[in-house]
Amino acid sequence: MPIYRFRCTACGNEFRELVGYGDGNDVACPSCGGNKVERLLPRFGVIYKGSGFYTTEYKRKGNQESSAGKDGD
């Protein structure tokens, strides 16, 4: 069962709740007891490490392009 983040529309309290699949409508706010809550998007970070795909695959190499142009002349 995943843990979701919720925000109560009545009091604005943000909280996390362990929710079974299909039980998202049965969540109540622990602060005010209201049942009008909205599920928030998950927070996750992306960390790029290393030289990267762009620099290794798409970086233009001046030596190859200039030598290719000279061969055609």
Structure write-up:
This protein has one domain. Helix content is 22%, strand content 19%. Strands 2-1-3 form a three-stranded antiparallel β-sheet, with no helix packed on it. Strand 1 (3-8) and strand 2 form a beta hairpin. The mean pLDDT is 76. With 73 residues, the protein is an alpha+beta fold. The protein starts with a strand and ends with a helix. The chain contains two helices and three strands, in the order E-E-E-H-H.
Report a brief summary of the structure.
The protein has 73 residues and is of the alpha+beta class.
Beta-strand residue fraction: 15-25%
Radius of gyration: 26 Å
How many individual helices?
Answer: 2
User: What does the average pLDDT come to?
Assistant: 76
What's the overall geometry? elongated
Number of domains: 1
Task: Work out the helicity level.
Answer: 10-25%
Extended strand count: 3
Strand order in the sheet with the most strands: 2-1-3
**Would you tell me the structural class of the helices and strands?**
alpha+beta
Report the biggest beta sheet as strand number plus sense, adding barrel if it closes: 3 strands, antiparallel
The N- to C-terminal Cα distance equals 66 Å
Chain oligomer state:
single chain
Order of helices and strands: EEEHH
The unreliable regions are: none
